[in-house]
Design brief:
9-stranded mixed beta sheet, binds S-adenosylmethionine, S-adenosyl-L-methionine, 438 residues, 12 strands, Alpha-Beta Plaits, MeTrfase_RsmB-F_NOP2_dom, Rossmann fold, alpha/beta, 3 domains, 3-stranded antiparallel beta sheet, N-utilizing Substance Protein B Homolog, Chain A, cytoplasm
Length: 438
Amino acid sequence: MNRPAVGGRLAAAQALRQVLDRGQSLDEALQLPLSKLEHGPDRALARRLSYAVLRDWPAVQALSSALMDRPPARRDRLAIFVLAVALAELREGREPERAIVHSAVEVARSGGLSRLAGMINAVLRRYLRERSAFESRLADNETIRFGYPGWLIEALRADWPDDWSAILEAGNQAPPLWLRVNRRHWSREQALQALRAAGHEAQLPDLPLPDALLLPTRVRISDLPGWSEGGLSVQDGAAQLTVDYLQLEDGLRVLDACSAPGGKAAHMLERAALDLTAIDVDAERLERVGETLQRLGLAARCLQGDASRPQDWWDGRPFDRILVDAPCSATGVIRRHPDIRWLRKASDLPELVERQAEMLRALWPLLAPGGILVYATCSILADENERQARAFLESCEHCEVIEHAELPGRARSAGRQILPGENDLDGFFHLAVRRLPV
Ligand SMILES: C[S@@+](CC[C@H](N)C(=O)[O-])C[C@H]1O[C@@H](n2cnc3c(N)ncnc32)[C@H](O)[C@@H]1O
């Protein structure tokens, strides 16, 4: 096993420790360890193994506890994650077993855990000797079988009695790469041909998504033809549907109330010449909206502000369209962000639901008669979606739901829901409401 493979595995173990012990997001946790790796394949390995462990965490955690005589001292916690990476790899079965064990020992040494290298070796060898006995003890436990916390399994079972296990399994599959073509720059056909000419197996999705292309495998985005000229962006097909709910036309005055990092703001501006105000409560994240728009040659009025306190930033002129792409549990995008299942807690939900409701209440009066408000989340929980939508509709006067049966998703008692993996899409919810003239 060569050195880069050790580097990738060590980087994965270090990042996993940050996520699972310290609550950092995987993207943030990977930044430092990845920056120390020179080789692309090594960085890809670090990412792949981090994802594999997060999807398999209850099983590898249960196995390591059963296999070790006692847990390592606090200062040696990294050893848990070195073992987790090796156990996840052994369970995956993609590499020869001896190479995985040898590599784990090397990873421990390069991670400053030389004194635990013998223990790691012994634990992994014991697993290989007694594998079937250890694995059979795991078989009945749902948390271990699916790789999700119990509270989330219960919530999904309650909301989706016929679909919950398919949802959990979809969250463990690698998603395709969805691209959005900037049709101000070139046509989708031109983008498709350029990608194919560069050797990518780009496909047209079989869905009403006029700006979307699909790539079946991960690639380095910045190497794609047209990327540096602003011809392409990465955005899941489900998120791309949002502009269709908004029914945009040139000249409209639009509010994007939760705009960072600017994916949907950019899509709106690619579709129509709009007077767009982009708000976000987080000043640092708002800077990313400016960067996103600049890369694509687009512009909006970017304001830092709290969407539930328009009195602090609104100039008093009504909007023709309002997008509330609300902060949510992100339970619809777990296949892209497997850390979410461990970082989100059941106790986060009531506060999220209240924040979403406050935004809807505060923003509705800013909509012009005849205007459309779209509420969107990347959640699959009814409290944030269907129930939130119903509560909002009960409280708002002079409004009418726009159904959009022509768009992908399942009609709910209010709004439309896409479940993760359906049509290769992320889990997403949309509700479009028109304000009726009085
Ligand atoms: C789902 S993300 C938005 C994604 C964005 N629309 C896009 O397509 O790139 C939710 C955003 O809401 C912001 N946010 C959270 N609470 C907010 C509030 N009270 N007012 C405005 N923005 C808020 C977060 O900072 C985060 O950037």
